[in-house]
Design goal:
44% of the residues lie in helices and 13% in strands. It is built from 14 helices and nine strands. A six-stranded parallel β-sheet has the order 2-3-4-5-6-7. It has a three-stranded parallel β-sheet with strand order 8-1-9. The longest helix has 16 residues, at 28-43. The protein is globular. 5'-deoxyadenosine binds next to loops.
Length: 342
């Protein structure tokens, strides 16, 4: 099958074809080739870097798959101060980052007025930079306040687009309906929105993955984050197997073909699953990497899953290594905010 045909076929594929593409190992290479072609047509060889600042590992939610769920009493909890967050941004800026991502558990301590204060200070200091938030579910009014304070992107994975499956991954107080409401509110406000899901999460079927793709087509997000499910010994899903590398790569390629303009990260989870995971992700269609720039001593505490890799690009040497790895793969890290190209 030629690349062009694969592109056309994937974009308009019926469920049956999507199921085959997702599951067959024969498809991995041709899909990656076609996805890379599409990615080069839209983004060239550019790879965008995002400075990931994990502001708090305190979370009021109890998601069964997540290592920082509130029921896990074994994690040492932390939250960064405003000064620590601003200092992470400053260091990241000097290294060449032009997007700051503030991610955290749903920590009630960080009220919306507090976050607005932090966001507006970053906005004033770095007017040309993008500010991304990944702080979970909030009311539309809260999202609006954060947007008005200067945030321009929001990451909130939908996790699974099947309500029954959603119910198996989350306690009753969390619903797919509210998750979708949040995503549509964010979009309506004007945020560049990121959704996404885990590959190989417990009870996930191929049909569920097709439903994820269909939901994404409906939402039409700017960013799509996917990565393999990875177990953590203190979660209810401790004994479930990890997500599959090739399936994740095929899904990345399918996403690139279905959403040529999307910002697709080669995620930390993918890099944790396989030593070449991130580069393989880039070659399969991803165009974003999100190195961790949180204070070194806090990083191991933000453990959503086990053995999370450190990307260590907080130092000039670490970033130089990442740049070398990316250029070895045939791409180039650029120092830009890296907005979506629609
Ligand atoms: N394995 C892989 N990804 C996970 N996430 C949470 N827990 C895990 C895990 N055990 C993902 C979720 C969440 C994102 C921040 O990390 O998809 O939205």
């Amino acid at each position: 099958m030629t690349e062009t045909r694969l592109l056309q076929q994937t974009k308009n594929a019926p469920d049956e074809v999507l199921r085959t593409l997702i599951t067959s190992s024969d498809a991995t290479r041709p899909l990656a080739k076609a996805a890379d072609e599409v990615r080069r047509a839209v983004y060239g060889t550019d790879v965008y870097i995002r400075a990931l600042i994990e502001i708090s590992n305190i979370c009021k939610n109890d998601c069964y798959y997540c290592g920082i769920r509130c029921a896990n009493r074994e994690v040492e909890r932390y939250r960064l101060t405003k000064e620590q967050i601003l200092s992470c941004c400053e260091q990241a800026y000097h290294l060449g980052f032009r997007t700051f991502v503030m991610q955290g558990g749903e920590d009630p301590f960080f009220t919306t007025p507090m976050m607005c204060d932090i966001v507006s200070e970053i906005r004033e200091t770095y007017p040309e930079c993008a500010i991304t938030l990944s702080l979970g579910e909030k009311s539309k009014e809260e999202y609006k306040a954060l947007y008005e304070a200067g945030a321009n992107r929001y990451l909130l994975r939908h996790e699974t687009a099947n309500a029954g499956h959603y119910g198996k991954l989350h306690p009753e107080n969390l619903t797919l309906e509210n998750r979708k409401r949040c995503l549509y509110d964010l979009k309506d406000i004007g945020f560049q929105v990121g959704a996404g899901f885990m590959v190989g999460s417990p009870f996930q079927t191929t049909e569920n993955l097709v439903e994820d793709l269909r939901f994404l087509q409906e939402l039409d997000p700017d960013m799509i984050g996917i990565g393999p499910f990875l177990p953590h010994h203190e979660i209810p899903f401790a004994s479930y197997p990890k997500g599959d590398l090739e399936t994740t790569l095929r899904l990345l390629s399918v996403l690139r073909l279905m959403f040529p303009h999307a910002l697709l990260p080669a995620t930390t989870a993918l890099g944790t699953l396989h030593p070449q995971g991130r580069v393989l992700g880039l070659k399969a269609g991803a165009n974003v990497v999100m190195p961790n720039v949180s204070p070194m001593e806090k990083r191991k505490l933000y453990a959503l899953y086990e053995n999370k890799i450190g990307t260590d690009a907080e130092s000039a040497e670490g970033l130089a290594l990442l740049k070398a790895e990316v250029s070895e793969a045939g791409y180039r890290i650029v120092e830009e905010a890296g907005h979506v190209k629609r």
